[in-house]
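Why run this: before we spend reagent on co-expression, it is cheaper to look at a predicted model of the complex and decide which construct boundaries make sense. The entries below are exactly what would go into the expression plan.
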Amino acid sequence: MAKFLVNRLVQGMLVILGVTLVVFVATRLVGDPVQMMLPLSASAEQRAAFSQELGLDQPIGTQFLSFAADLLRFDFGDSLWQRRPALDIVLAKLPKTLQLIAAGFGFAVAFGIPLGALAAVRPDGLLDRIIVSVSLIGLSVPQFWLGLILVMVFAVNLGLFPTSGSGSLAHIVLPAVTLGIPSMARIMMLTRSSVIAELNQQYVRTARARGLPFRRILFGHTMRNILVPVLTLTGWEVISAWAGYTVVVETVFAWPGLGMTAMNAINHSDMFLLQAIVFVVAVGIVLVSILLDALYKLIDPRIDLA
Amino acid sequence: MKPDTMLKAALLGAAIAVASPVLAANITIAIGSEPSTLDPQQRDDGAERAVTDNIFETLLARQPDGTLVPGLAAAMPEQIDDLTWEFKLREGVTFHNGEPFNADSVVTSVERIIDPAYASEQMAYLATIAGAEKVDDLTVRITTKAPDPVLPARMYWMKMVPAAYSSDPAFAQAPVGTGPYQMAAWNHGEDIELAAYPDYWGDAPQIEGVSYRFIAEGGTRVAGLMAGELDLIRNLYPEFLGAVPNSTAVPGLETSVIVLSTENPVVSDPKVREAMNIAIDREALAEALFAGLAEPAHGQLVNPKSFGFNPEIRAYDYDPDRAKALIEEAGATGKTVTLVGEAGRWLKDRELIEAVGAYWQEAGLNVEIHIEEFGEYLNQLFDKDHRPDSIFVVNSDELLDADRPLTAAMEYGASYASNADEEMAAQIQAARAETDVEARKALYAEITRKGHDLSYLVPLLNQEDIYAMSDRLSWTPRIDAKLLVKEMSVSE
Amino acid sequence: MTATHLATIPAQRPRPAVFRAAGGFLAELSKDKAAFAGFLFLVLVVLAAVFAPLLAPHDPAAQSVLARLKPPAWTARGSAEHLLGTDMLGRDVLSRLLYGARASLLVGTSVVLLAGSFGVLLGLVSGYRGGRTDTVIMRVVDVFVAFPGLLLTLLLVAMIGPSTPTMIVVLAFSNWMIYTRLVRGIVMSMRTTPFIEAAEVLGCGPRRILQVHVLPNLVPPLLTLAILEFTNILLAEAALSFLGLGVQPPGTSWGLDIANGKNYMLLAWWPITFPGLAIALTVLSINLFANWLRVTTDPAEREKRHARGRLRLLRRKAAANG
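The model came back. C-alpha cells follow.
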C-alpha cells in the first residue's frame, strides 16, 4: 500500500507540473491581459506602468522562474479582476462547487443504481426498454440545453424552483439534476449490464434453485460484486464533472462556484486566477483518483495496485 | 412559562414576523456580478456602484434629470482661485458607525483616493485633484493641479468615507457610509443585504431593506423577474418590453459612435465622410433595434444632458440619394472601406454595426465588416499608427461633461481619435483648463461644430436605459443610471 | 421460394462487391429498428451538411431587422417563408440548422481523425516495442488522462483565441489517449498469439506484421470507439460554442445558436429548441448505431443476439400455438 501511494503521489506531482506548465505557456505567450484590464480611456503610459507592475515586461524565462518560485509557496499572485490573492478566491468558491457535485452525484447514484438493477431483472422486458431508452436520451441531450429547458419549465412556468443563484435547498435542485443526468444514465447502463452478467453466474442460479428470495440475491450478493465497476465509473464521472462540466452547469444557473469563476476569469483575461483554478482542479483530480484506487483495495484486496 | 408554551409563543412570533408588512417592504435587485469589494473608492465597477450608491454619499449630488445640487455639502462650492474650491458641509450628519461627518472625513476621502499607493481605478475621473485641506470643522478646500472647471462634477463622483474606520481592513467587507442604507449582510456568492439606516439625515426611505443578487446573463435576469424572484433589473432587452410586468426607460449616458479616419485613402475625403453620415436612417435603427427607446444622436458625441452639448447642431439628415451622389462625386463608388467592431460588450452592438455596414454598402461603398474578439478589437482601437477606416465604439458620459468624450474620440494623439487635427487637439486641451463657464461653452461649441462639419465621427444613437420592474415596485429612473433605493417605493 | 430467388441472380449482371456488402449491411441493420432509424437520421445530417447551400432557403448569416423572432410556419403568426422561424437577428433558423450541421461534422470528424491517428500510432509503437518505450508512453498517457479535460480545453481555446481550427487542435490535444490505450492493449495481447510469433520467426518485418496481421484485428473495436468518441466531441463542440469559445460568428453552430437564443428563450422557444433537438437526435442516433455496430462486429455478442432472437421466436411460436 505504501509503495502504491508513493508511486501515485509521484505521478500526481507530474500531472500537476504538466498542467501548470501548459497553463503558463498558454497564458504568457498568447494572451495580453494589459489591454483587457484597463478602461478604454487609459493612456499608453498607464498601460506600460500596469504591464511593469505585473512583471509582464520581463523576458519569458525570468517570468517562469519567478512563477515557479511563487508556486512552491502556493502563491498564485493577485487576481487581476478581483485584486485579491487568486488562491483565496478559489478556496472561497470551492465549497459551492463541492456542494453541487455532491448533490448531482447523490442524485445520479440514488437513481442510477436502483433503476439499473430494476431494468436487469427482466432484460428486454417493458420496464427494461423504458429505462434503457430514458438513459440513452439522458446521454444524448447536451447539458447546457437541458439546463435551459429545465429553467423554462420548472422555474419560470411552474415556479417550483428558483431560476438561478444559490442560497436555499431549492436552489440546488435544478443544477444538480442537470449535472447528474448524463452520469446517472451511464451508471444505470453499467449497473444493468453488470447485474445481468452477475445473475447469469452459477452461484445465482444455485441460490435461486435453492429457493432464496430473488430480492435477497439481488441486494445481498449481486450488489456487492458490481460495486467495484460502478464505483470506478462514478469516480471517473465525478472527475470529469469536476474537470469541466461544472463550468457549463454553473454558467447556465449562475451557480457561484469554481466553474462560474473560471468563466469570469476567462472573460476578464485573468491569467493569475485561471492558474490558481486549474491548479486546484488538477490537485483535486489527483486526490480523487488516488482515493478511488485505495478504495478498491479496501473493497477487494485481490486487486493488484502496483 | 412552561417550555412548550414558550415554544408556542416563539412559533407564533415567527408566524407574525413572516406575515407582517415590514418584510413586504424588502426588495430584490439584480446586478451583473458580485462586487470584489464594497470599498467605494477602489474599483471602477458598475455592480459595486449599484450597492455603494445607497451606502455612501458625495459632496454634490444630481437630481434625476442630471442637475448638480448640494449633497453632503451645504451649498454649491465657491471657487476661491483658479486652483481652489471651497465646500461648506452639512451639519449633524453621522456615519452608520457613529463617526461624525466633518472636514476630516472629506480630507481623508480625498487623500485616500488620490494616494498613488492606493491605486484607485477611479483616478481616470479624478486625476486633476491635488489635495484637500480643512479650514474649520465644516469647511474644506479642495485644490487641483491645473484649472479644472469639471471639479464640481468630479465631487459628485467621489464618495465620502469615514476618517477613522476607512483605514480598517474590515472596511471593504463591512463598509460604513452616511447614506440612507447600511450594510446588513454579505452572503458571498448569494447576495448582499442592506437595511434602512434609522438615523439618516434626509427623509426616511419607504423601503426597509434591499437584497442584491448577482446574475450575469440578461436572459437569466429576465427569467428571475418573470418568476417573481426579482423586483428590478437593468439593461432589459427591448424585445421584452411587452413581456415583463412593468418597465420604464430614461435617456441614458451611452452614445454609440463610429470614428472615421481622416488619414486613410477613401475616408480622407470629407464628402465621403458626410455621405457615410447621411446614408444611415437612424430613426429606423432606433425603432427596429431598440423598440424606439433610443434617439438619433444630435450630430455630436456629447450627451444632450452634458455640459458642452451644442444645441445648434442637428442630427444628420437621412438622405440616401445625396449620399450616393456624394460618393459618386468623390469617385469612391465601389471602393473598399473597413468597419471594425466587437460583439457582446454593448447592447445590440453587433446588430448596429452590421446595419450601418448595410447602409454604407447601399450608398455605393464596398464595406468589409470585421467583428473582432474583444482583445483584438482593443488593440485596433488604440493602435496609433494604423487607424482602421472606421471603428465602432460606445461612449459613456459618466461626468456629464464634454471633456471626456471629446478627448477620447477627437483629440489627436490622446486616445482613439482618428484625425490628425492638431488645432482641434489644442482647442480640446484649452477647454479642459478653461474655468470661465461661458468661454468654455463657446470653445466646445466651436469644437463640436467643426467635428460635425468635417464629419470626423458618425454619431449614431443616444441610447435609453431600460429597466424592468415587478408590479409592486414604483420608481422613476435617473439619467445617471444610479439605482437609488430611497427613491423607490413598493405597494402591496 | 429460395430456389426461384437463387435462380434469378445469374440472370442479372453481377453486382460489384461493394454494393453487395452495402446491401448486406443494410439488410442486417434494418433488423434493428432503433439502429436503423438512427442510421437514417445520420445520413440525413450528412446530406444536410454537404448540400446545405442548395437546401437552405436563406443565407444563414443574413439578418433582417424587420423579420426578427418570427415563429415557425405552423404557428399562428408564422409564415411559410421561414419554416422554423427566425432568431433575434432575423436569421432563418432552418438555414442555420442546416449549416450548423457542417460545424458539428467538421469538428467531430477532424478531431477524431487527428486524435485517432496520433493515438493509434502511439498505441502501436507502445504495444509493439514494449519495454521502456511502452513504460514512457503509458506514463505520458496517464499524465494526460489526469489533465482537467474540459477546463483545460476552455482555457487553452480562450488564451489562443477562439476559432474553429483552434478548437479542433485543442480538442484533439486532450482526447487522443483513449485510442492509445485501446490499441496498445490489443497489440499487447496479440503479440503473444502463435500466429504473430510464427510470422516473426518466418522473418516478417515489424511494419509488415503490423500492416497485415495486427491492423485488420484492430479495425472493428477502433471503429466503435471512434464513433463513440465522435459523440463526445460533438457535445464538447456544442458546449464550447455555447460558452462563446468555439465557432465564432458569422459562422454557425448548433451550440452557438443556443447561446444566441438563450437570452430570448422566454419570448421565443424556437431558436433554442431546434438546435438543441438537432444535437440530441444526432448524438442519440450515433449511440444507437454504434451500439448495433459493436454487437455486430463482436462475434461473441453476435452469438448472444442470435440466441436471444431465436428464443423470442420460439416463445412467440409457443404462445401462438397454445
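The domain at 252-464 of chain B is CATH 3.10.105.10 (Dipeptide-binding Protein; domain 3). Chain B has two domains: 3-215+470-490, 252-464. Bring this page to Monday's planning discussion.
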